[in-house]
Amino acid sequence: MNELNRYAKQYKGTQLFLVLTAILTGLAILAQAYLIVIVVDRIFLQGQAFSEIVPLLGWLALALVARAGLTYASGRAGVRMAAKVKSQFRRKLLAKFAKNPIQASLQGQSGQKVSVMLDAVDEIDSYFSKYIPQVIQTSVIPLMLLIAAFSQHITTGLLMLITAPFIPLFFIIIGIKTQKKSEQQMDKMAAFSGKFLDTLQGLTTLKLFGRSAKQKESIRESSLGFRDATLDVLKVAFVSSLMLEYISMLGIGLIALELGLRLVVFESVTFFTAFFLLVIAPEFYLAIKELGSAFHTGRGSMGAAKKIIDELEENEQTVKWGSNELVVSSPPAISLDNAGFKYGEQGFELKEITTHIKPYTQAAIVGRSGSGKSTILNLLSGLVSPQTGQVLVEGQPLSEWTEDSWFRQVSYISQRPYVFAGSITENIAIGGNQEATREEIEEAAKKAGIWDLAMSLDQGFDTQVGEGGRGLSGGEKQRLAIARAFLKKPSIILFDEPTTGLDLKTEQILQQSIKELSAQATVITVAHRLHTIKHAELILFLKDGRLEAAGTHDQLVKAASEYRDMVTVQQGGETG
Amino acid sequence: MKDLSIVLKEVGRERKDILLSILFGFIAGITAVGLFASSGYLISKAALLPPLYALTVMIALLKMFGLARAAGRYGERLYSHRATFTILSNLRTGFFEKIEPLAPGIYQKYRSGDLLSRIVGDVESLQNFFLRVYYPPIVLIIVFLSTILFTSFFSITIAIVFILGLILTGFIVPALFSWNKRGLESKVRERRGELSTEVTELLYGFRELKLYQRLEEKEQLLTKASEEYIQEQERDGIQSIFNVSVNTAISLMVSWTVLAIGAYLVVEGELDRLFLAMLVMISLTVFENATPMAALPGHLEDSRRASSRLYSVVKEQPVKTKKPKVTLLSSDALSIDFEGVSYRFEGEQRNALNRVSLSIPAGSKTAIVGPSGSGKSTLLMLLLKVLHSEGENVLIGGQPVTHINAEDIWEKANVVLQDNHFFYGTIRENLEIAREKASDEEFIQVLEKVDLSHFTLDSEVYERGENLSGGEKQRLAIARAMLKNERLWILDEPTSSIDALTEQAIYKELLSKAADDTLVLVSHRLTGLEKMDQIIVMENGEIVESGSFNELMAKQGYFYEMKRIEKSVFG
To answer: Is the pTM of this model over 0.90?
Structure first.
C-alpha cells in the first residue's frame, strides 16, 4: 500500500484536483438537498406560487448537473493518473528487463516476467482509477455532511457521529475474520478449476480405456460440492453487509424518529431542517459504505504492486561495456583469464577457466550435462560478464570494447533459435547488420537449405512464422538460425549443437554450413557430435565447472582418462 | 447469439433459485422505495402536526421497510449466487456431455495446448451472465412497474415521467453507449495482443535481439505498444466514466422533473401537497436501481463472446461409423494396412501424411521411426480413429476403419500415448482404469514388470501425475497397457524418458507379452529395434524406406545414416 502511495504522491496536482472535486461534490450534494427541501417547503407549507420557485428549480438543475459533471471529472482524473503510473511502471520494468534477462531465461522465469509486465501492471489500474479518488471522496464528503448536520441540529449530528464509526469498525472485524477464509476459498477455486481441467485433459485416456461416461457425474458432484463450500464463505460476507445495512438503517431510523418527535411533540425543529437532514443522512452513510468496496479493489492492486516491486528490486548482474571500437579484418583472438561465473547464491559455479583461442580456430567445448558448457558460451558471447577473472578480446578485456562493435562480430546458433512473429524474410533479415536486400536474404536461405522449404509454401518467403504463424520444426529453426549467420557473415560463431538427432537433411546442412562459415570465422561449438570434436583444433573438456583438460582429440584421449571414457563409451555404442 | 441460447437453456433449469433471486431482489428494491417514500411522507405529515399515534404507525412502517430491505438484499445475494454456481455446474456437465463424443479427435484437431484452459476460463466467465445480465433487468422492471403503479394513484403525469425516465436510463442510454463502446473495447484487446507479442519476443528472443543488435529497436516497439495500449485503456476508461456520469445526470434530471411537475401540480391543486416530498424521495431512490444497467451490455458482450468460443469447439458432429458396421473379434491378432493415405491438419499447408502405404501382418512387430514432425504419430491417430482420413484406405483386420466403431478399436487395443494422463488418486485407482476387477497381486506383478515396485498400490498420485517423473509416468502407462492385455499394441514413444537399461528390460517384457499379438511401436530413438519384424522410416510425411533392422543396415540408406548420427551424439 505504502509503495503505491509513494507513486500516487508524485501526482500532487491530481490529488489536489481530486480533493477539490470532492469538496465541490460535497457542496453539490448539500445544494441539491437544500434546494429540493426548500422547494418542497415553499410549495408544501408556505403555499407559494409556482413562478416563485422557478429560479430555485434552475439552481437545482445546475447543482444536479454539477454533481454528475464532478463525478466525471474525478473519475477522469483517476483514469489519467492510472494511465501515467502504468506507463511509468512498464518503462521501469522494460529498463530492468532489457538489461539482462539472460539469467532469467536460463532459469526458466521468462513466462513469469511476461505476466508481471502485462497483467500485474494492468492490475494496478484500479488503485489509481478507483481507490484513490474514492478514499479522497470519503474523507471529505461525509465530513462536510456532518458539519452541515451539526449546523442544523446538534442531536442529529451527534447521532451520525456515534453510528458512523460502527461501519468501518464492522468492516475491519469482518475483514479480519473472513479474509483468511476467503483467500483459502480462492485457492480452492483455483484447485477446483484445475480439477475440471484435469478431467478434460484426461478425456483421451479415459476414452481409450472406455471410462469416460462416469466422469460426468463426478464433475457435477464436485461442482456442487464446491458451490456449497463457496456459499458458506459468501454467506459470512453477505451477513456482514446485512449488518452494515442495519447499522445505516438504524442510523437513518433513529434520526427520523428523533426528528419526527421533535417536530410533532416538542415543535423544536422546523420542517425544513427535518427534511434537509433526512435527505443528507442516507448520502452520509452511503459515502462511508462505498469506501469498503473501494478498499476491496485497492487490495488486489497492492498484491500486483508487490510483484512488480519485487521484480524491480531483484539484483541482476549487468554487463559493462567500454568505448573502444573493435575494428578487425580477421577474427579477433579471444582468451579467458581465470574467468568464473556463479548463478545466484547457491547456484552452479563455473571456476577459473583459462584458455586462449586463436583466430580461425575450430574449438569444441565438451563435458557432461551440467558441467558448465553453455555458461562458457554465454561468457564468450558477452551476454553475461565474468564475476571473477576476465574475457580478453585482442588482449583487452571485453568490457572495454563497445557493445555494438563486439556484437557485430558474433553469431550465436542456439539449440532452440527464437523465431519472431513475422515473415521468413524478416526472420532472416534480423541477422543482417544493415538493411539486407531480398537477393542477399534468399542467397543466405539457399546456403542454409531453407530456400526449398520456403518456396514450397503458398506465400513463399512471405509466409508468416513464429507466434500466430506457421510452426517450424526444430530442424527448420536451426536452418533459419544458420541463414541468419550467413547473412551476417560474423568473424566469431558460437554454436550450441543439438543434443538429439535431427532429420538427415538438417544434420548434413549443419555440418556443411559450419564448415563454410568457419572459413571466415572462429567457431566455438558446444559439441554433442563425435564428428565435431574429432575435427576440432582445440577441445575444452569441462567437469563440474572446471576446465579439466584442453587440447586436440588425440592429446586428450592420451592425457585425460575421463575424456577417454566418455568418448569411447559413445563410440562403442553399447546402448545400441 | 445462438450459442448464448444454449447458456440460456442451462440457466432456465434453475427455476426455483431464479424465482427466489427475483423475489428477494424485488423485495429489496421495493422496500427501499417504500423506506424513502414513507420517510418523505412522515416528515410532511409531521409538519402538519398530526396526533402522535399517526406518526407511530409511520415510524413502525419505516423501520419495517428498513429491516425488510436489508433482509431482501441478503436473500437476493444468497439465492442469486447459489443459482449462479449451480448454473456453472450445469454448464460444465453440459459442456462435458458435448465434448465427450468428440474427444479425443477434437484435441488433435486444435493442436493447441491452451484450448482446454480457455474452455475452463470461458465457463468461469459465464458466471456474470446470470448475476449481471439475466435477472437484474427483470427485478428492475418489476420494481419500476410497481412504483409506477403506486405513483399513478397520486399523479398520472408523474407516473408517465417515471416511465419515460426508465426507458431512457434503463434501455436507450445503455444501448447507445454500448454500441459506441464495443469498438473501443475491441481496440483495447487488439492493442493488448500486440503488447503481449512484443513482451514475449523481448524476453524469449532476448539473446537473438542482443546479438543481432535489435534490442533497442525492440524496446522502442515495446514502449510504443505499451503506450498505445494504455492510451486505448484510458480512452475506454474515460468513456465508461462518461457513460456513468451521463446516466446519473439523466436520472437526477428525472427527479428534478418530478419535483418541478409535482410542485406545479400542487400549486394548481391537482396533487395533494402532502405527497410532494414523498414523490421526490421515491424518484431519487428508484433510479438508483437503473445505474447497474449501464454495465449490462458489457457483460452481455463478454458472455456472448465466451459462449460462442466455448460452443464453437463442440459445434461439429461426431464422425458416424459407416454401414455395414463391422465388429472386431477380440480373440484374433489383427493386421493393419494403409493404402495411399494422406492427411492434412486444418489450417496447415502441407500434408502431415502423404500417400502412405504400409502393411502390418497380424501378429507381427513393427517399429516406425523418423525425426519429429515426420508424421509418425499422425499415422497412429488415423489408425485409432482419433483423426479421420477420407476414403476407406485405413484397414484393421482387413476391414476399413470407417466401418468400425472407434470405441470398438479402443476396446481391442493396448495404447500408450506420448502424453498419458493420470488422475488425482492412488496408483491402484490409476491402474483400475485399465482393468477394474484385478487382484492386488496382479497389480503388484505388473508394477514389478515395469520396474515400479518402489510404489505401493496406495501411493498417492497428484493431478496430472505431477508427483511422478517422466519415466515413472511412462512406465505406469505401460503397466496399464499390460493390464488391459488385448491383442493389438499401439505404443507411441513409450520409453523416451526411460534410461536405456530399463528400456531394454521393458521392451523384453513387452515383446514376450505380445509374442503372438500385433505390435506397432513409434520410436524417436533407434535403439533396441533389432528384434522387430519390420522398421518403417518416415520423413516429411512420407515413408523413406522399410525393412528389417539387418536389411536397412545393409542397405546403408536413410536408417543407416540416422543410426550413425545417433551413435555419434553425446547425451
So the answer is: no
